[in-house]
Design brief:
It is found in: Cell outer membrane. The chain is mainly alpha-helical and 262 residues long. The chain has twelve helices and no strands.
Length: 262
């Protein structure tokens, strides 16, 4: 996807002088930065593109160098720098033909920083916001196509965080807290892979609280939508052990959320 962006060298004279503190022709600076980029010397490339802008701020190649700098920082895993550079490009050149790519760089720079579900998910939410912003602004681009796939993965990751906390609360018998976490998954992340387990855990937690109608409803919703799931088998067994069956309570919050399935 990053290869969609075209890297262009400037035709012009070159020099063997490498003194970064001496003003040099724009084509020399840009082509040296591009050579560093192609050699995977990404930090040097980013600095070179930054130098293009510093020495030749009014050159047409200064604009190109700004977005190239953001890309080079991304390639060097300097994601915060990449975000700053890309956002600056967006602010300065909102109508530029490469602005969609700048939004894409911001989004994937957040996305690459996503950590395991056991850690804080602030950056995951930032990634989701940036990806959704890209799709909203540039829905018909190839960048948006890739972003849509990453949105699904990011949402699944956020749901996984809620599940991890919910399981911990359930294990500690903090049942209301557990239910609230599983409810978030069912309400806000309905298309993720975590929904079947969330419904089963709701069945389990509601049974432990003695709220049998909600437990039966959770199992019924689970059975209707995921009839072959092992989570449904486990929920059915839990109810059966308590002489109960999956059954919908029409007043349940779950029916309001999943009302189209009944």
């Amino acid at each position: 996807m990053l290869g969609l962006f075209l890297f262009v060298a400037i035709a012009g004279c070159s020099s063997s002088e490498q003194d970064a503190y001496v003003e040099r022709p724009v084509e020399e600076l840009y082509n040296q930065a591009l050579a560093d980029l192609n050699s995977e010397n990404y930090i040097e490339a980013a600095r070179g593109f930054d130098e293009v802008e510093r020495q030749h701020p009014y050159s047409v190649w200064s604009t190109k160098a700004q977005i190239m700098s953001a890309f080079a920082y991304y390639q060097s895993n300097e994601y915060d720098q990449a975000i700053l550079a890309a956002e600056r490009f967006i602010e300065l050149h909102p109508g530029n033909k490469d602005v969609a790519y700048a939004y894409y760089l911001v989004a994937i720079s957040y996305y690459e920083q996503i950590t395991g579900v056991e850690r804080d998910q602030k950056v995951t939410r930032q990634a989701l916001d940036a990806l959704q912003n890209l799709v909203r602004r540039f829905p018909n681009t190839e960048y948006a196509q890739d972003a849509r796939l990453k949105i699904d993965l990011t949402r699944d990751h956020l749901a996984g965080k809620e599940m991890a906390v919910g399981r911990y609360y359930l294990k500690q018998k903090y049942l209301i807290g557990a239910i609230n976490r599983f409810r978030i998954v069912v309400e806000e992340y309905q298309t993720t892979t975590h929904v079947p387990e969330a419904l089963h855990r709701l069945t389990e937690a509601y049974l432990m609280l003695g709220i049998t109608e909600e437990a039966q409803t959770a199992a019924a919703v689970l059975g209707y939508n995921f009839p072959g799931s092992e989570w449904y088998q486990d929920s059915y067994a839990l109810l059966d052990a308590n002489y109960l069956k999956p059954e919908v309570d029409e007043d349940s919050w779950m029916v309001k959320i999943w009302k189209t399935v009944f």
